[in-house]
Design goal:
By secondary structure, the chain is an alpha+beta fold. The protein folds into two domains: 110 residues, Glutaredoxin (3-Layer(aba) Sandwich), CATH 3.40.30.10; 328 residues, no CATH class. Strands 12, 13, 14, 15, 18, 19 and 20 form a seven-stranded mixed beta sheet that branches. Helix 7 crosses helix 8, helix 8 packs across helix 12 and helix 9 crosses helix 12. The longest helix is centred in the middle third of the chain and has 16 residues. It starts with 16 loop residues before the first strand and ends with a strand.
Length: 486
């Protein structure tokens, strides 16, 4: 017998007596139907049926096929017998156990001809389709966004193009039902204001994020990741407004770490930076749509990129943690391995690195450093940040040599000290470069903390990747990591 507190969410139909919840499609409920009559002979009894208001016969059963009462009473198993005293639930039993039913009801010889014990059946409230439908219906009632009515002759896909709601690709129409279903992916209230979305600093609610997640093609279980990405993007440190206004190539890169990346099926392996994985593709796209549709960041208006790059549609992947030789990025940034996070980086395009011959960490580090020197421009120092995405085959070279991530970063930075005399304006007949004031000094290619290293990609291929950033630090953007919560 389970003793419970009162249930204020449902008005109990009797002050003292018993409630029972049953369904005909349950052998145990069928078996205890005579027991219900015996209880009714001694106490007030109200029986609710989840599937047939004529069952059990002769008891004036109340129809609960809509499951309103079952949900309000948090019914998990049928039959459930509930004792009511002074209008309050004081105890309940699930399934059939003669001794417990006799003790609760005080009726002797209750069900004497029945087996001593039978387990119950799952309540219809546990049916995933039913639970989802009710959750969606409840969320629909909470929606507050303006409804846009289309004309009878309008094609909904074309209408969204014409209204400027897309990123140039078709989007999923955000019907009330789809938005409500998306909202079931988070426990946050639809009207909860998450951020002020730049550049227009518009209040961006969970509902607004859900609308754009629908349009991007997300599943409900992706919504917490999208919300965290929006939160990270709208911090002063990340500086999404500045990122939008720059004429540089960059846009937000979303890296996902922790258990949620595996739970929602994100790709950290083969083609991790490419197409083909729904979570990767739609989470990054949803963030971009929020910035466009809520914040007002439209290309050619606030978004002033000279050339842009394909990652501005979507740029999102997971770190390959399960066989990495190093701690994942979120752990390096102070989070526990069991926490799930998003990390945002103001990223330019992807620059491939090929080295199919190096078998020592020193040789491979030399290759990587030579390629990293070209980020932004070979004659620029500490202006640009970068991420180095090390593939499993390259990572194996460092694993076998027992190089930690800290050592690799240190070795790279040692190789990326640039002589001011060699990178000054005009040197090598190249006007671009560092000011003459730096002559005689040694300059780091990357500022302290400006080079991050992550592990991703497929098992085959001695290739890694460099993802250059935008202007670093206070004049540009810092990477931001946020925990993902439901």
């Amino acid at each position: 017998m389970r003793r419970v507190a009162s249930v204020p969410s449902v008005k109990l139909p009797i002050a003292d007596g018993f409630l029972a919840v049953v369904k005909r499609d349950c052998p145990t409920c069928e078996m205890v139907a005579p027991v219900m009559h015996a209880i009714a002979d001694h106490h007030p009894l109200v029986v609710y049926s989840q599937d047939d208001p004529a069952f059990p016969e002769g008891l004036g059963t109340v129809d609960d096929r809509d499951l309103d009462v079952s949900f309000a009473l948090a019914i998990d198993t049928v039959p459930t017998l509930i004792r009511v005293v002074s209008g309050q639930e004081t105890a309940r039993l699930e399934g059939w156990l003669r001794e417990k039913w006799q003790d609760l009801t005080g009726v002797d010889n209750l069900g004497a001809a029945l087996p001593e014990y039978r387990p119950g059946c799952g309540s219809r409230t546990n049916d995933p389709d039913i639970a989802e439908a009710r959750a969606v219906a409840a969320k629909i009632e909470q929606l507050g966004s303006r409804r846009v009515e289309l004309g009878s002759g309008e094609d909904e896909i074309e209408a969204m193009f014409e209204r400027g709601w897309t990123d140039g690709l078709p989007v999923v129409p955000p019907t009330a039902e789809r938005v409500a279903l998306m909202l079931t992916g988070s426990t946050r209230a639809p009207d909860d204001v998450v951020v002020l979305a730049p550049p227009d600093l518009v209040e961006c609610t969970v509902e607004k994020i859900a609308i754009n997640a629908v349009m991007a093609g997300c599943k409900p279980e992706y919504l917490p990741v999208v919300i965290a990405a929006v939160e990270a993007a709208c911090t002063d440190e990340f500086n999404a407004h500045g990122l939008l206004c720059t004429t540089w190539f960059s846009g937000p890169l979303v890296l996902v770490n922790g258990p949620i990346s595996r739970a929602i099926g994100m790709n950290s392996g083969v083609n991790a930076l490419g197409q083909g994985n729904r979570a990767n593709a739609t989470i990054g796209r949803a963030l971009q749509l929020v910035i466009r549709n809520v914040g007002g960041g439209r290309p050619g208006e606030i978004d002033r990129a000279t050339l842009g790059q394909p990652g501005k549609y979507t740029f999102c992947f997971a770190e390959r943690e399960h066989d990495s030789p190093w701690e994942p990025l979120h752990v390096e940034r102070g989070f526990a391995p069991t926490q799930s996070t998003v990390t945002l980086f103001a990223a330019g395009g992807v620059q491939g690195v090929v080295d199919q011959l190096s078998r020592t960490p020193e040789s491979l580090t030399n290759s990587l450093a030579a390629c990293l020197r070209t980020v932004g421009h070979p004659k620029n120092a500490f202006i640009w940040d970068a991420w180095l995405v090390v593939s499993p085959e390259h990572a194996r070279v460092f694993r076998d040599a027992r190089w930690t991530k800290a050592r690799l970063r240190g070795e790279l930075n040692t190789r990326l000290q640039l002589a001011g005399d060699d990178i000054a304006h005009g040197v090598d007949d190249i006007a671009e470069g560092m000011p003459p004031a730096f002559a005689g000094h040694t300059l780091p290619k990357f500022r302290d903390g400006g080079l991050q290293i992550v592990h991703a990609g497929g098992e085959a291929g001695l290739f890694s990747a460099i993802i250059g950033g935008w202007a670093s630090g206070a004049v540009g953007s810092e990477i931001v990591t946020k925990e993902i919560t439901r």
